[in-house]
Design goal:
This protein has about 80 residues and is mainly α. The protein has helices at about 20-30, 35-40, 45-50, 65-75. The model has no long low-confidence stretch (mean pLDDT about 85).
């Protein structure tokens, strides 16, 4: 796994959220990482990561029309 360093403004209150989980959640939301990959990235179980998605405004379910059409076709 690669490691990166990100400089955040000191005015950002990281007690309100975890920047690494926020990034993982957004990468999951954009389908760049799977839930398992995102969970591993931040050192959480997949279940815990999935449970935390709502805190970061990310739905477990895809919101793309293409994915919805696939789901309907496979139902």
């Amino acid at each position: 796994m690669n490691t990166i360093t990100i400089k955040l403004p000191s005015s950002l209150d990281t007690k309100l959220f975890d920047p690494s989980v926020y990034l993982a959640a957004k990468l999951y939301e954009d389908s760049i990482l799977s839930a398992g990959q995102a969970a591993e990235m931040v050192g959480l179980s997949k279940r815990t990561f999935i449970e935390m998605l709502g805190r970061y405004g990310v739905s477990l379910f895809s919101t793309s029309v293409k994915d919805l059409e696939k789901d309907i076709a496979n139902a």
